[in-house]
Amino acid sequence: MTDTASDRPAAPGCPAHGGAVRMAGLEYQQTPSQLYRTLRREHGAVAPVLLDGDVPAWLVLGYTEVSYVVRHDELFARDSRRWNQWDSIPADWPLLPYVGYQPSVLFTEGEEHRRRAGVITHALEGIDQFQLARDCQYIADQLIGAFAGSGQAELMRAYAHAVPMRAAVQMCGMPHSGTDTEQFVDDLRISLDAAEGDDPVAAYARVGERLRRLVGEKREKPGPDVTSRMLSHPAGLTDEEVVQDLISVIAAAQQPTGNWIGNTLRLLLTDERFALNVSGGRLSVGEALNEVLWLDTPTQNFIGRWAVRDTQLGGRQIRAGDCLVLGLAAANTDPQIWPESHVGAENSAHLSFGNGEHRCPYPAPLLADVIARTAVETLLDRLPDLVLAVEPEELTWRPSIWMRGLTALPAEFTPAVH
Predict the structure, then answer these.
(1) What pTM does this model have?
(2) Which one, of 184, 151, 161, 80, lies nearest residue 385 by Cα?
(3) Count of structural domains, the chain
(4) Is residue 137 part of a domain?
(5) What are the residues whose beta carbons fall under 8 Å from the beta carbon of 220, sequence distance 6 or more?
(6) In this structure, what CATH number is given to the domain that contains residue 146?
(7) What is the DSSP letter of 319?
(8) Coiled-coil stretches, from where to where (predicted)?
């Protein structure tokens, strides 16, 4: 049952006309594909929605339409200061960490965006992918060793999120474990995917404070890490610019990759197509990773783009300053590109890493794949008889419209003897 705003008139000129769907507190999380089908049927490829506090926006559902938006920065730009709704946004609005303008690569445009993205690309290219795989295997082995003797584990917290978290902070020059790091990662999770009772705005502020200390430390004593390479780049980013861009790098490496691992483990443990093949070879792990990006993409909706001027999209009249939410999960499952609902696991034309100038900078997708693939393969190698500890239908998804990830993934296996 979707929650609509058809019982009251929309504000004059705003996109939320009768029938707009509230994207907060929805109960569709277990099967969002049903909501996307309903929205397509009722509204087409671009649907009017209401964000937290009934703030109006557009949800772009179509693969063709999302691709068009992300490839036309001159029409749909990233600088959120264009938004025509700022007068109605309270200071404690929960989505501020997503849309509040920051001097970050995420919100820059044109030549400035190319400069900032170039620094990130340079810093990430300095990562040896073979060394990263070895580091991730070591991290994975350490984590598995902590629960292998018990014969059971909750894999989301104990493993799926922990592997990319430790890998990401280590890449940036922080210790991969310890109280300080754990607090940092918890704040990062809250700012990206707040649960009931969390304060994402305060958590985001603490993330920034910790990274300012890290940047200060690396100015004094550089190392072979992403932060030091960003600081030494000829583009000459300020400390605050490096802090803001590090937030983007770490956030992209940690939360989405953790959910990618968790969603892939869920697929491997619940789908007979994979269960028959996993023990026989590695090929099915790669297929599962790719299929998840199509069908259960970790970042299911992304906010967003802001219309530079009045224009049309998917038959809708978009006003200058309107906010567009990119429906990545809806676009990846668009029946226009999969008319028979069959997703080819070998096809990698999904939009999970974005597209256009603001897509995940190279080689970030490759590094995420190294982390995710190593995490999944190491777990299956170490615990070959791993099975779910509950029935598949008992698994639940986090109540987030932005991230697609399980609340828990309880598993059982033969206890390892040390």
Answers:
(1) 0.90
(2) 151
(3) 1
(4) yes
(5) none
(6) 1.10.630.10
(7) P
(8) none
